[in-house]
Predict the structure.
Amino acid sequence: MAIPPVGRRWTPFVVLAIAVLVVSSAAIIIRLLQQPPYALPSTLIAAGRLALATLLLLPLVLYREPDGWRRISRRDLALAAASGAFLAVHFASWITSLEYTSVASSVALVTTNPIWVALAAALFLGERPARGTLIGVALTIAGSLVIIVGDQDGGGRDSILGNGLALLGAAAVSGYFLIGRALQRRISTLWYVTLVYGVAALVLLAILAGQAGAQLGALVATVGPGAALLLLALAAGPQVVGHTAFNWSLKRLSPTFIALALLGEPIGSALLAYLVFGEGFRPLQLVGFVVLLAGITVAARDEGHT
């Protein structure tokens, strides 16, 4: 069997590393939008992020793959809709969690999805995690727990609620990753993400309409130029670049490893939160970050040899 060139073999890992760096900024942009002078509701932030991302992707997918929609079956369309619903739940719950707990705890908890991804991939996709991946899961989960314990004094007005919402976001995004892994064997990444982001945006807009009622138009009108630019940055960076790169990587790497790599996000987010908001972290959290990186490294080496 031919051995792929080293550069080509490691390309997915480089793309994934860039995606993690970009996505690390998401929690910071969201926190800025939640605070004065913008004070946007979390559901509006989530809906705006996905709606703008869909609008950014539509011209690209129609230009590059104008006939791609003809190859999407009704079954695959239904699966993409389910993936979009999972993504909507993920963003609605995780973004709301940032109102109640610290950036470090929220991001660490929402990225505990390796537990759910590894179990679900084994049960539904028949993918047996390799030994190194299992060690990586154990290390990264341990690192997440250490970060949470180290951040116990940094919670907001109701850190228990915030942490629970972040865990719900972790469970939901696991369904999104697993469906994406299966669907992208049959349809292109561009069409998949455009459909999924669009469905997620519609679900979130429906939730927002239910929350705001007759005041929906007035609520959307409160989004000024500054908030609109931040929402656009959130859509273009973490969503279009970051999440689309994750989905591209799902064709080339296992969903368990993708989930593990995402655990690098708490490190970047915590550092940015310290620089922007002065959210410090304790020495125990630093230990957790080191353990997280160790887990990702172990899993990456194992994945690179498969």
Residues 231 and 285 are 30 Å apart (CA to CA).
